[in-house]
Amino acid sequence: MVGAERVGGEMARVEHGGKGGKKEMEEEEEEEEELGFEEMGLDPQLLRALRKRKLAEPTPIQVKAIPLILEGKDVVARAKTGSGKTLSYLLPLLHKLLAAAALGGSSSSTGLRALVLVPTRELCQQVYQEITSLLEHCGGTLRVIQLATTMSPATLKSAMARIPDILVATPARIAECITHNALIPSSLQTSLSTLVLDEADLLFSYGYEEDLRNLSVHVPRSCQCLLMSATSCPDVDKLKKLVLHNPVTLTLAEIDGSADGSIVPKSVQQFSLECSLRDKLLYALSLFKYELIQKKALVFVNTIDGGFRLKLFLEQFGIKSAVLNGELPQNSRQHILQQFNLGLFEYLIATDDGKSHHSTGKDEDDSGNAGTVPGMQAGKKLSKKVLTDTEFGVVRGIDFKNVRTVLNFDMPFTVEGYIHRIGRTGRAGNAGIAISLVSPQDEDLVTQIKEELSGDAEGQGQSKAVIAPFPLLTSTAVEALRYRTEDVMRGVTKLVVREARAKELRIEILNSERLKAHFEENPTDLELLKHDKVLSKVHPSAHLKTIPDYLRDPATEAASHAVNLARAAMGLTQSSYIQRRKKNKRPRTDSGPPNAFSLNSKWRKDLKRGARSVRGKAPVSTHTGKKHKRRKR
Ligand SMILES: Nc1ncnc2c1ncn2[C@@H]1O[C@H](COP(=O)(O)OP(=O)(O)OP(=O)(O)O)[C@@H](O)[C@H]1O
């Protein structure tokens, strides 16, 4: 049976799979009062942890999924990026394990209870942190292990010597555990009560199909299986068939109250800027220099060399950024993510994982030198060939904190890639902006994205432009920076890029182990090793840091002014961390920035006239995220 229910003002489509049963859909009003976390009957220690994190109301996916999982149903949850899927399975999972522990059941006697499988090491770490934060008040009742790092068989065995209650890992690490006898698969038959497949749409494309098939035969029939994904694809169906039994499928259409069925959260405004491939640096510079990129920003590029090229280019203009890619040691990657989330630097250039187009996981640069570390000579301490980590993934599932803007410097390879990338902003109902630099080569993909996203809305009776042309940057503003751009571009040669990349890698590898030990003990020292340091040999010239008056374009200036007024009105001029350090007080609760690009008609007129200054108040539209009202019939 299939039903559509209203959840927190949203339409939730619920499908109950039955053996051979034909699915149908019907709409019905919620009969009973919607449940808050308390009413769900969750363990008081978990509720305390939620209160501490100021998570007052469940999100729509949590409203639907938690009771079903508590009831013991197998659940397939397909909900948008940033909609809170992680807590929707962790809360009931932990509740059940705590309840069992209270009755005297523990892993030491029964073996592994819960297994959470994720596609990347980064997600592994994130889910593990989420669990430990939720268990903060549980006094060590449950034992949790994450297998995010590659370990020697001996270390693996010793880590698993005492079987945990909960294991978080990629499928490859589980296969390793089984191969090295660190986990006896037959023991799962009697112990495993919950299996979670998080970011399920990616598990096969990351190459884990065989590992999952091998594992599936050891999953007992009684084990509750939960499958979470943001997008749907044939792989999700294959996985569903492999491990789930008669699942309830939850398809939540929207997080912020509308029911148009669109895949992308409403809180993300999408824009495109058309330019040639060669002009991408020029357009990016213009966006940064006119402060049209709201901080913090995540910039996506498709190759590691491309990432370093952009970093080296921007730093000549006084714009500092860090680069994150799968070639870096895992500790460094973790550290970069931590620093960015804390707000220690504001621009992060991320090299997309290539799994979305089923690549080998190697970085393919223009010279065809896939995966080699440029500038690194044989015979040096580091091996010449360093491949990117195939279990690295920055786009999918990572919960970047307070990212206001996602800039697609390079377009991704697939529509799914686009959805996941822009889903790094606008999380949990906060507002976000996605800007894509679209070259003629990207046109087919953009058409596909537009069709898929607007078709999605159209299917529900609403057709609209999903990606609007970016309104605030004039060609005059861009052209004014062309000469400077081309001058600096000439200095950022392939050789310079390769040297910088090799230098960065050497430093990060050396720092990697030191980082791990030191920062575990001294987390407040995080600031000492900033990842956005200047890499160029040529010191940036002071005159490039600002745009001189004669080059400034009044119209774009007015737009920038408008955006910044709106931001200032929300107290968002600097990252929360920097603000906190300056004012020495706690950061404000994040309610999202104003919708800075929704300029009212007066502002638009000012912009057209090229007014030098904009009078009046900023058009602030506060977006606090959806408040889920309790509704009685
Ligand atoms: N009930 C809640 N109220 C407010 N914020 C929440 C709530 N539940 C989760 N969040 C926050 O929402 C953010 C996104 O959650 P989460 O990472 O689980 O999203 P997701 O649906 O798994 O996204 P993705 O598909 O991108 O992985 C996190 O920062 C999380 O702490």
Explain what you see.
The chain has 633 residues and is α/β, with parallel strands linked by helices. The protein is built from 21 helices and 17 strands. The chain has helices spanning 44-52, 60-71, 85-102, 107-110, 121-134, 153-159, 171-179, 185-191, 200-216, 234-243, 280-289, 304-315, 330-342, 415-422, 443-458, 475-480, 482-491, 494-521, 554-569, 576-583, 601-609, and strands spanning 2-7, 10-16, 27-28, 75-78, 114-117, 144-147, 166-169, 194-197, 224-229, 248-252, 268-274, 297-301, 322-324, 347-351, 405-408, 432-438, 468-469. A 10-stranded mixed β-sheet has the order 3-1-2-10-4-9-8-5-7-6, sandwiched between helices. A 7-stranded parallel β-sheet has the order 13-14-12-15-16-11-17, with helices on both faces. The longest helix is centred in the last third of the chain and has 28 residues, at 494-521. The model is unreliable at 1-13, 17-31, 254-258, 354-387, 457-463 and 574-633 (pLDDT under 50). Bound molecules: adenosine-5'-triphosphate.
Quick recap:
By secondary structure, the chain is α/β, with parallel strands linked by helices. 38% of the residues lie in helices and 12% in strands. It has 21 helices and 17 strands.
